[in-house]
Every structure is written in structure tokens, then in C-alpha cells.
Design a protein that fits this description.
The protein is of the alpha+beta class. Helix content is 41%, strand content 18%. The longest helix has 25 residues.
Length: 670
């Protein structure tokens, strides 16, 4: 049944049978957003191209697709012709995936003020622990794969309250844009989505599961579903223009029966669920100081006006609009709103919970590295298939003879016959047709090699990055330069992914500040891999001044993060390597410096030990830094990891804290 007819029937059913709190107007609004995005050129083209891109990465018969059609492959099968797929795309993509996984860098909390430096260091380690608990590193690697294969990847950083309704559990879930996540196709900012009107996560659910999840709407859901079942049995011949729309614009343009079946499948009794996150605006009053330029937010309009009236020549009350994010869960088939509320993330109410990684975007085109490799891959597959066809066709050479020249012509008709061929007197012996197979083979092979070269040039992943070698024996310097050239070409993918990681870190940090608000003790791991315990939000620190906290922290064995929710910081990508391969590369860079300037050996000694994979690393680093301190080479006195400010009286660094201050050398980022 067309979606417009479903809309009209659902609107009638929801108005007649649903309780007032189902809010059909909100459901109509979200449904209109979904149809706007689903039918837009941006998302229509992206779904078709991205699915084909993934097929070219996985290989096989999917590599014969052209504009989503397999007609070319079906034609070859009908002619009983050879068709092979030599997957050159996967090797190129896997090189980039390997780079990302070997070159991971941790997220880092950068304090806004010097006094929060130690708290930010503890929060960085807490952030690392939460990433390990949520398997965030592997999930982000999957997002990077979606970015370079499909062109878009996404995650939702949220809190699951189903297992622990009081405290919640932080979750990081991978999403597939176009298939379970859509957003405003007219928005331009795809990093922070500041101009995006809505983002919609959608999925199909069985009717019984919906009723179990929303029991308060059981009667309304069942009544609307019965009406939809009844109208579906009448056939799909009817049509109606449906409601003209509401204050948010028309909702027409969805006459595709497939969209209607997405909304409601009567056979499976499944309905589409739309979880919409959308922007709204509320009034905010601020008081501006004309002299100093300072601006302070007031609790209400009355407070702002009263404050400004105290000194009208200097102070001014100003009304502004504040952007906030809200959410609603609706059933578009029945036009019911199952949930409608403010965002559950009260400390992050101006940001969507979704973080998107974009490969490349030019206007209405979004694509990854696979998009421009498809044509060379198609030609390569066709040429290799044609070579096999020629070899098969001419592998059994056909004889030519004069009619009536043979006593036993049936012998030639049987390719496996071993009997001798008998020629009649007065006739020539049979001859054999020999086509130029070698020349054809050479031409087709050269054509295939040309398109392999085209794929490497298009992607920028040259033979040295692929672990191959061109003809000749180039020097190590030449190889390194060619590899560097390939890495520069691939930088754009990692730059975009780095922006994604920073936004992901910001959302994850906000969830930590929302969930970790009660007193608890957690086991963390410092930069040297040593485990230690930290007290979060201790009650005996509440209401204490900084000096009082400093005296309470004199015990070096106590590590405290006094107030997780109040810490002010920004999230950056750490310059410290997080994987063994990157630590090894950084170690080689430091050793090259020491080799060039041996006098700097003692200066970089702590960094060398810290980057090396040696047993009991923490003790060795501490011993080296003590030697450096005795030589006047250390960056400063040891700072305990428990957050104690300088001068608070700590006598010794606690176990697990990197002593001697920050290392003197930080290896460069990717």
C-alpha cells in the first residue's frame, strides 16, 4: 500500500483510538523528516553507490555490478563465458586499515587551567579505561573501514540504563549511515552538526517487542495495527493524497510501495521505529558589561533586568536563543509518539549523540577510496576473463581437411580419441588452424597491468606501500621516499578520521562525567602500564578548599579525582604512541637523534627506556630520572599521580605515577 494511504489511515486511526499522549503531530513531523532525508538525492545516491563500493571491497561476483545492476554478469553466464574477479581493491584498503590499527594514538584531556593539570592526567587514564571497557578502539577501527570503503562511518556514544537504571552503563555502538542512521541532507557541518535540524536512527521491530518496550501504549499500538492489517487486506489499488502537512512543511512524496512496507509489514507484523534527535531553541537571558565586555548568563528574564537596572549605564540585559537537542521515538505507520523528552544527556544537551567520520565530500557526493577504483577493477576483471576465454577456446585447436579426404573423420570429432587418422589416396593431410594466441595474450595481459597501475595511481597506495618491488634494485632512500609519497597521498583519510576521534572523545568524556558522579574506587593504568587505584568523587572532599584538599592528599598512597563532573578540559589527540609499532617508530627516531648528537644520550635516556618494551619499565624509568635529576637534566621534580598540587608536601611519588615530570621529548603524531 502506498505510504500516503498509510499516512491517511494511520492519522484517522490514531486520532480515533489513541490516547492524547501519543502526539500524532510530533509523529507526523518526524515522519516528514525521515521521508525528506530518505528520498533526497544525497541519501538515494549514497545508498546505491556505497553498497556497490562494499561489494567491490569484499570481491566475488559483486565486482561485476554497474550502477547497482548485475546485467553484465548475467549476460556472460548466459553465454557460458568465463568470469573471474581478481580483487585488487581489498589489498589497497587493507593497507590503510593496517596503518590505522598500528598507528593508534590515545585521547587526552587537556586542562583549561594549570591547577587542573593533575586531575586532567587522572581523567585521561580514566578515559583510556572506559575505552577499553567499551571496546572503543576496535569499534573506531570499524568506523574507519566504513569511511574509506563506503565514504561514511558513525557511532552512537550513549548510556544504557536497562541494566543499571540508577547509574547507567556507557556504550559505544557502530552505526551504518544510510541504513540505520540519516540526518538533514541540507546541513553543511558534518563534524559538530551545528546546522543540522535532525538526526534519525531507525530500525524495524516486531509488534510484540514494541508493546513490551512501551506497555503504556499497548492499546493504541494494537488498535492502530489492527486497522493497518485490515486496510492492507483490501489491496494496494486505493490511493489518497493524505494529509497536506503541518506547520513544519508537507510530508508528501512517498508513493514508493517499498517505503510503505518499511513503515508496516503486515505479514511479519513489523513496524519501522524512528528515533529522532532534533534541535530546538529556548530563550536565554544574559547580562552584558559595556565597559569590560564580560557576559554572564542570568537564571531568568527578571533576574537579568534587575541586575541591569542596578547600573543601567554599564549593564544591559539581552535575550538570546539557546540551541538544545531533544528526542522523540515514533511509529510512522501509526503516527504515534512513544517517547518525547529532552535529551537524556543533561550535561551535553547541545550536541547530538552521534559522531560521524566522513571520507570525502564534494557537494552531494560522498565517497571513500573504493569509489574511483571500481572502473579499473571492472576492466581488469573483464580482461582476465577474456584471456581465459581465449585460452579455453583455442586450447583445443580445430583441424581443417578436404571433404571426403579421411577414411575415419569421426576420430577428429572426438578430442580424446587416440586412433590414427587415415587419409584417402590423392588427398592432402589435415591442417590445423593456429590463431595468434600469444599476441592476443600479450595485449590483454598488458591491458590488465595498465589498469592495475591506474588503481595504484588513483589510490596513491604505491608498490612500496603494498610491499611490492618495481623492476630494478632501488636504494633504501629511494624506497623510503616513494613510501613517504604514498603516505602523503593517504593523509586525507587519516586527517578526517582524526577529527572524528576528537569529536568521539568529547562525547565519551561527557558520558563519563554524567555516569561517574558517585563515590567509587576504580583500577586504572598509567602511561607506563602500571595498575593503580583512584578514588572518584570522595565524600570527604566535598566542600573543601584547594589548600584543605592539598593537606588531605599528603598521603602519597592516595590517588583522588575529587569531582569528575566539574572538571573543565578539552579533548585532544595524544602525541604519545599507543601501540607497540608506533612506540618502536618513535624509539628509532630518538635513537637517530642520539646517534647524531651522542651528548644528548643522557637527556633522552628516560624517553628511550619509556618507549622500549622492557620488563619492570616503571622502576627503570624512575631510576633514570633520578640520575637525570642528579645531573640537573630532569624536566622537574617528580609529580605524584594522585593530583597533589606542587608544594603540598608530598615526600615521594606514589607507585604507578610517572616520576620526573613529562618526558623531554614527545614523538610526532601521524
Amino acid at each position: 500500500m502506498p505510504a500516503d494511504e498509510l499516512t491517511a489511515l494511520a492519522l484517522e486511526a490514531s486520532t480515533a483510538m489513541s490516547p492524547p499522549d501519543t502526539d500524532p503531530d510530533m509523529a507526523l513531523r518526524v515522519r516528514g523528516w525521515f521521508l525528506e532525508a530518505w528520498n533526497s538525492k544525497l541519501w538515494t545516491d549514497y545508498r546505491k553507490e556505497a553498497e556497490e563500493d562494499e561489494g567491490f571491497y569484499t570481491g566475488g561476483e559483486d565486482q561485476w555490478s554497474v550502477d547497482g545492476s548485475a546485467a553484465e554478469l548475467d549476460r556472460l553466464k548466459g553465454l557460458r563465458r568465463a568470469h573471474v574477479s581478481l580483487n585488487e581493491v581489498q589489498g589497497i584498503v587493507d593497507i590503510l586499515l593496517g596503518f590505522e590499527q598500528q598507528n593508534r594514538f590515545d585521547l587526552k584531556a587537556d586542562p583549561e587551567s594549570q591547577e587542573d593539570d593533575q586531575d586532567a592526567r587522572l581523567f585521561t587514564w580514566l578515559l583510556k579505561d572506559v575505552q577499553d571497557r567499551t571496546n572503543a578502539h576496535d569499534t573506531c577501527s570499524e568506523v574507519f573501514e566504513d569511511e574509506i570503503v563506503r565514504g561514511l562511518g558513525a557511532v552512537e556514544v550513549g548510556v544504557d540504563w536497562t541494566q543499571d537504571p540508577a547509574r547507567g552503563r556507557i556504550v559505544v555502538e557502530r552505526l551504518t549511515p544510510g541504513w540505520d542512521l540519516l540526518w538533514d541532507p541540507f546541513g553543511q557541518d558534518w563534524t559538530e552538526f551545528t546546522d543540522c535540524r535532525y538526526m534519525i536512527r531507525f530500525k524495524s521491530g516486531f509488534l510484540g517487542d514494541l508493546i513490551a518496550q512501551y506497555p503504556q501504549h499497548k492499546a493504541a499500538i494494537e488498535a492502530a495495527a489492527e486497522r493497518l492489517d485490515f486496510t492492507s487486506e483490501l489491496g494496494e489499488g486505493k490511493s489518497t493524497d493524505g494529509p497536506p502537512g503541518d506547520a513544519y512543511g508537507p510530508v508528501g512524496g512517498a508513493r514508493d510501495p517499498a517505503v510503505g512496507r518499511m513503515f508496516w509489514d503486515p505479514k511479519a507484523r513489523k513496524a519501522l521505529i524512528l528515533e529522532a534527535w532534533y534541535e530546538d531553541f529556548e530563550s536565554a537571558w544574559v547580562v552584558s558589561n559595556k565597559t569590560t565586555g564580560e557576559v554572564h548568563e542570568a537564571e531568568s528574564a527578571q533576574v537579568a533586568r534587575q541586575t541591569a537596572a542596578g547600573d543601567p549605564k554599564v549593564l544591559t540585559a539581552i535575550r538570546r536563543l539557546r540551541r538544545v537537542i531533544k528526542m522523540a521515538v515514533v511509529l510512522p505507520a501509526t503516527l504515534q509518539t512513544l517517547e518525547k523528552d529532552d535529551t537524556p544527556y543533561d550535561n551535553d544537551d547541545q550536541a547530538y549523540p552521534f559522531v560521524v567520520s566522513v571520507g570525502k565530500r564534494k557537494g552531494q557526493k560522498v565517497y571513500g577510496i573504493v569509489r574511483n577504483l571500481k572502473d579499473p577493477q571492472r576492466v581488469l576483471n573483464k580482461r582476465e576473463s577474456q584471456i581465459l576465454d581465449i585460452l579455453i577456446q583455442y586450447g583445443n585447436l580445430r583441424p581443417m581437411y578436404e571433404q571426403g579426404a579421411l577414411e575415419n573423420p569421426a576420430t577428429l570429432e572426438d578430442m580424446w580419441a587416440t586412433k590414427p587418422i587415415v587419409t584417402r589416396p590423392g588427398h592432402d593431410k589435415p591442417t590445423w588452424y593456429t590463431p595468434p594466441v600469444a599476441e592476443l595474450f600479450r595485449v590483454l595481459t598488458a591491458e590488465g597491468e595498465r589498469h592495475e597501475l591506474f588503481m595504484r595511481k588513483t589510490s596513491g597506495i604505491n608498490t612500496d606501500l603494498l610491499g611490492l618491488r618495481e623492476k630494478g634494485d632501488p636504494s633504501g632512500i629511494a624506497i623510503a621516499r616513494v613510501q613517504a609519497q604514498g603516505q602523503v597521498t593517504a593523509t586525507v583519510w587519516f586527517t578526517h578520521f582524526r577529527a572524528f576521534k576528537r569529536q568521539f572523545g568529547r562525547r565519551l568524556a561527557r558520558r563519563i562525567q554524567q555516569v561517574y558522579t558517585y563515590e567509587r574506587v576504580v583500577r586504572l593504568t598509567n602511561d607506563l602500564g602500571e595498575p593503580f587505584q583512584v578514588s572518584l568523587n570522595p565524600l570527604d572532599f566535598k566542600g573543601k578548599t584547594r589548600d584543605e584538599i592539598g593537606r588531605m592528599q599528603m598521603d602519597p598512597r592516595r590517588r583522588v579525582l575529587k569531582d569528575v563532573s566539574a572538571l573543565e578540559f578539552d579533548i585532544k589527540i595524544s602525541e604519545a604512541p599507543a601501540t607497540p609499532s608506533m612506540r618502536g617508530m618513535s624509539l628509532l627516531a630518538v635513537l637517530e637523534i642520539v646517534k647524531t648528537a651522542p651528548a644528548l644520550g643522557l637527556v633522552f635516556l628516560d624517553t628511550i627506556v619509556e618507549l622500549a618494551d622492557v620488563p619492570d619499565k616503571a622502576a627503570k624509568v624512575q631510576a633514570v630520572r633520578q640520575i637525570q635529576a642528579s645531573q640537573g637534566l630532569a624536566g622537574g621534580p617528580a609529580v605524584p599521580a594522585n593530583g597533589q598540587p606542587p608544594g603540598a608536601g608530598a615526600t615521594a611519588p606514589p607507585p604507578g605515577a610517572p616520576p620526573g615530570g613529562p618526558p623531554l621529548f614527545q614523538p610526532p603524531g601521524p
